[in-house]
Structures are given as C-alpha cells and as structure tokens.
Amino acid sequence: MSGHAALARGPVTRPAGVPKAPSKLPKTLGMLTTLAVLLLCIWAVDAPWSRLLDAPSAFADYLRLMSEGVFANPTLEPQRDYWVTAGEAMLESLQMAWVGTMIGAVLSFPVAFLAARTISPAPVVAVTRMLLNVIRAIPELIIAIAIMMPIFGFGPLAGALALGVGSVGTLGKLSSEAIEAVEPRSVEAVSSTGGSKLQVIWWGVVPQAMPEILAFWLYRFEINIRAGAILGALGAGGIGSILSQVFRLRNWEQVGVTLAVIIIVTVIVDQISARVRHRIIAGPKGAASEHRDPVAEMG
Amino acid sequence: MTTTAPGLKAPSGSRPPKPGPRWAVWIGIAVAALISVYCLVAIEFTLEPLVTNLTNGQVVIEQFLNPNWEFVWRVRDQWLVTLEIAIIASLVGCAIALLLALMASKVTAPTALYRVMKIVLAIQRSLPDLAWVLMFAAIVGTGPLAGILALIMFNIGVAAKLTAESIDAVDPGPVEAAQAVGATGMQRARVAVVPQVMPSFVSYSFYVFELNIRASLVIGIGGGGGIGEVIRVQLASFNFENISAIVVALVVVVFILDQLSRTIRRRLI
Amino acid sequence: MPPVRSPRTSARSDRRRSMITFRDVHVTYPTGTKGLDGVSLEIPDGEFVVVVGLSGAGKSTLVRTINGLVPVTAGELEVNGRRVDGASRRELRRLRAEVGMIFQSFNLVTRVSVLNNVLMGRLPHTSTLATLVGAYGGANKDIAFDALDRVGIMEKAYTRASQLSGGQQQRVAIARVLAQQAGVVLADEPVASLDPPTANAVMSDLRRVQRELGITTVVNLHFLDLARSFADRIIGMREGKVVFDGTAEQADDRVFEEIYGRSLRAGDVAAAAVSIEGQQGEPAAEA
Questions:
Q1: Which residue of A has its CA nearest to C160?
Q2: Which residues of chain C neighbour B166 with C-beta distances below 8 Å?
Q3: What pLDDT does A285 receive?
C-alpha cells in the first residue's frame, strides 16, 4: 500500500497493477446471435409487415367506435341488447369455468396423493407424474373437440368437462408438490399416535397442504375463465361464441361493449380471487408464506 | 371437578381464551357449495350422454385414434411458421414487458405511475388471447402477423406481471445504496434492480416461449396463422384423422419443450 | 476539467469549519415514534465521530438524517453548506453525491463484479444513457481502480461480489464511497455483521482512509471497545437526545452505563485484540 496523495476531486491516474478484464466476447456473441435469430424469423415468416403502417390509425378508429358503444346510454337499444347478450355469455363462461375447476379439483385431489413422493411408493409416483405430464400437454381444445363435444354435444356442459379433465394435469402436479412440502414433523406427530396411513394423511398432511391447494384451485378458476373462450368459439358456449360472431360482423360498438364486459368481470373475479387466496395462504396467524417461484407453480 | 395427579398444582383460573370456531372456513365451504350447485344446474350438468350418446362419440373417437401421420410432414411449413411466430413474439414481448414491469413496481416507479400501470396490466391480462387474435386479424388481416401481435400482447401480460412481482421482492439493500449515492431513478433501476431480477426474467422468457407454442392452436383458430390455422381448416372439413396426427405431434413437441424448459430454468435460478 | 482542490489535511483553516450542523433537529416517524428529540451538534471537517447508544436510541436516525434518507421533521440541518431539511429531490441527489454511506449488510449488488459495485459511486457523474448501456468511461474507471487500490483489493476487481468474504465486501463498500470522492462518510453499523478480528480490520481501514484523505466520518457502532479505540469524539444517544459528547478518553465504562441506562454486558464489546491506531497498511489475512 503506497502512500497516496490526499483526496483530489476530479480525474485520477490509474494505479499500476490493474487486473486484466475478462473477455466480453461470449456476451456480445450471445446478443448478436439472438438478434440474428430474430431477424431471420422476421424475414422467414413472410408476413405483410407493411400493414403495420396503417394499423395504428385503423386501430384508433376502431377504438373510438368501441368506446362510443361502451359509453352510449346503456338503457337504450341497441346498447341494452349488447350489454345483456355479453353479460349472459360471460355468466355462462363463469359457470363453465367453475364447474370445470370443480371437476378438476375433485379428480386431481386423490391423484395428487398418488403423485406425492412422501406418500406413495416411487414407481406409483413415477407413473402418475408421467400421466399428469401427458394430460397437461394436451390442449383442452382437443379434449373438447375429440371427446366431449361428440358425446355431450354443443354447449357449456362439454366445455366444462373439457376444462375439468384438462385441469387435472396441472392441479395434480401442483397439489402433489404442496403435499410433498408438508413438514415431516407434523406428519410424525400424528403417526406417532398410532393411526392408519389414511388417518395420518387426513389429520397430518391435509390440513397443512390444504391452504396452498385451495389457492391453486382458485387460480385455476381464473385461468379456466380465459381458457373457456376458445372452447366457446368452437361451440361450447360462453363468451367465446359471442366474440367470434361479433368480430365477424365488424360491429365495433358491440365489440366494445363485449370487451368491456369481459374486462370488468374478469378483473373483478381476479381481484376477489387474489384476496381470498391471500387470506387462505396467510392463514389465521396472518403469517405470509415465503416467496416461491410463481412460474414453477404455474406449471 | 378435575382430579390432579399428586404433586401437580391444580390449574389456576385464568386460561387463555379458546380460539373461536373457524367460522370463516365453514362460510367459505357453504358459499362454494352454493355456487357449485347453481353452476351445475345452470349448465344442465348430466353424465347421461356418456351412456346414451357414447356410440355417437365413438365415430369421432375412432377417427381420432387413427391418426394420419403423413399429414404431419405435409404441413411442415406451418410448423416452422408457428416456431417463428413464437420466437418473434417472445423476444419482442418480453423486452417490452421488462420496461413495463419496471414501471409497474413500487421499487422502481413513482407511486402514481406504478398504480396506473398495475391497473393497465390487469386490464390487458383480462382479455383472453382469442380476443386479441380476433382484434388484430380485423386490423391487419388474418395470418401470421395477427398471430404475432396477439401473442406479443399475451406475452406482455404474463411476463410483465411475473417480472413486476420479482422486482417487488428484490433485496432493497443495493437499491438503498444507489439512493444514498445520489443516483437518479433510472440509474437505480439499471444498476441495483435489473441485475437482481435478470435470472428470473430470463426464466420467465423461456416460460413465455413455451406458452406461445401451446397457444398456437388458439391463435391459429382465431386466424393467426401457423399450425393452428391448419387445424382450423381441417376442422371445417371434419378430417379428424389429420387433426389427431397434428395434435399428437404438437403434444409431443410441447412435452419435450416443457422438460427442456424446466431444466434450463432450474439451471438459471 | 474541474480544478484539483488542495489536500484538506494540510489546510488548517478548513479544519475548524463545521461540516455538519444540527440545529434543534426533531425527527418523528410516521408511526409516531420520536427518532430525534431536539438534537444540536456541530461536527467540524475532518473529524472521526462515533455515535453510540441502545437500539432505538436514535443513533441510526442521526446518521441517516445527514444524507436525507430519513427526513427531518423540524429544525435545521446543514451539511457542507447545503440545507438538508426541506431539500428538493434534485438537491438531495446533489448532496448525496458528496456524502458516502456504508451499511451493516454491505448492500452490494452480489451478482455483479466488484468493479461495477465501486462504479456505483460514479453514478452522479455518469449520464443516464451511459449508465443504461454500462459505458462508464476511462476516467471513472481510473477513479474506481484507485479506490480499490486504497483499500487493498484491486486484484479482485473483476470477481463477483458474492464470492468475497464479509470483510472484503465491506471494503468494496468503502471503495465505493472513495470513488464518490465524497467529503463526508456515514457508516451505519458497518461491522455488526463481522467477526471481531474482521471488524477490527475494517474499522482500522476506515480510520486509515479517513486520516489519509481528511474526510469527515460519522460512524454508528454498538461495540464500545471499538468506539473507544477508533473515535476522536464519541456522541452518546439515549431516547433521541444527545446525552454525552466528548473524547474517547472521557468515555469510560461509567459514562457508557449512563448512556445505556444499564450495566454493560458482554455483547457490548467486540472483544478480541483492540488496537489503538489500526494495523498500518497490513489488513488482516481474510478481511
């Protein structure tokens, strides 16, 4: 440590012995590759990019028409009809999503135990997990088209069943993880009192894992409301069918009202669900759970 | 009258109050049950068709169980298009999402701004991707462009929320240090916040890419091009064997992507 | 090019100029608790002051009002001729550029290199655009390297901050302050997370740097032996008021007991070997 001049404001000479800076090459290379891939895709996809130029003004026009529809007097025709139609369809979407989530919850609950390493033997866990992963990879859309609608016809019943079966995959996986996360101490406490395995599960594991599982069910409900839209477009009822009709007719005022209904209802449901989930997880003690990776949760 | 073991004190009078019955739980269960019954009735829930209509469905299911594999190869161009759409939408969408996330967090944005942004993002997330596709298809015409734009919107919704939550959970120490040095808000965000959320952000970006592939069906049916477009056409002609082949291929691709994506993301965090 | 100021240690006339002035300062937190209760102090340029007291006595509040991290509710506070109370955001930023701070938990960006952490001290002198891209420029890097050299860890410049020990990380924090070329250094419990020998080493580094550069330093400590061995002047706080203000020699155990309002305990002392002048130029092995 040499003696330095006292503190000077402003520039300073670089001391001797500065270590060598690491190479910037890998990082620059990475960024260039990403840029190259992006440009390649843009060129290859052969989309009419020029249309983007007209887009903003067209969008602005449509937006104006949509807001006119929304802010026009809702008690007069035809606005009243728009609001009522959209409202009924949204209600149907909610019902469909609720039943679907319920089915998914009921079916996934026992399966989750089969997929939990702390409860079931390893081969059972492996098979169940594989099954769940396969179900998760199948889009609800296909379940609806291939199975539910041929058997149950058009309408929200088919949609609900498709959502239900589709939810089993994700809910099963997440619930099994919640079960595995239960502290072994509480399980030991119960099993040491000498109960059957089922009793141990019911009294030791379920109360611990339930808040998280309930939260997953609620979150799945939010997702199913949106997932139901595409099913509706194929005939399962709900807001989806209305959407495709309305856009096809290019009746922008009605489009505006329909979108407004979707936004309002979805935001309200999301808010309620978020608050309830928070209360459930926080629990009577009011302790917040630690921050977990939400992406892993979403599966 | 309790009998106490010899040597033990009799319990003194003041016990802690017994916690009240958890009525919140019971009310919750009751409400859920009521809603469930209402919904079941409203959608006319019945499993009867399983018995009566099974033969009807059987025809379709049979066709589905007979996939036409050759078709998958025939539409290989569309697979590429789907991939390209997903890549473009992920890169562009996530970049925009990062900026929006910085604006939507208490840590990096002034109060007025982040409250507004949180509302804007909530509204944007509330529209299902189908609505976005239909909207953009009406503006720029059907095809991959509409699909890309719709997916960008969808990606922004997902990634901005996740990233904003990560930003909210960031270690405040370095941010305070940057504040104590006299840095501006943007400098604080760039120097103290962004390095902390980078791994999570990249992880979310991979996740979003995977979601885009999954969403290609919906996008295509709504008119956004790619493999979903193929399904739409086939659906109109009831070619279930073709649809089935594509779906199986898609499921396999998504499955593989899912496993890959998990491993990459685990390594990042 | 800004003019190079003459070294402060030799300017005798500067020495008695007040760097930090508190005039009947009150701080009340939004929760209603009183942080500072009528504090009046003058800290001349170049002095090494240690503030002691129980947690909640106001020592942390005192230190944090100096750079405006805690707002002053009433009274006047002047730092280097600038008024801190009621300063606008821009004025605060300018003030903070001249006041360096080190924290108990180091507050480094752990995923990033040591050099980048020290460069944080140059942020007020770097444009926003340059910061966004990460182009600090040669002059700023020179200052950063010089700062790292002064605390003796220049060879770690490109190491990730998370790979350093606690003592090394605090040294990086000191280097960050040096890079600011600040006139005042604040330290909020800088050694509370370190083991006694490392704490000693960091404190002597701080003292050495302060002596070399003549910077006004206000340190918040709860280890009494460290306070006595390193401070020019000790300020004892209790319930938001200054209850003792004197030299280290004047502060014996009885004085501390008065400040603390109780008899001293083992936790009040950092133990280990206490050095008076610090190890000149030879920091402890792992620190």
A1: A22
A2: none
A3: 43
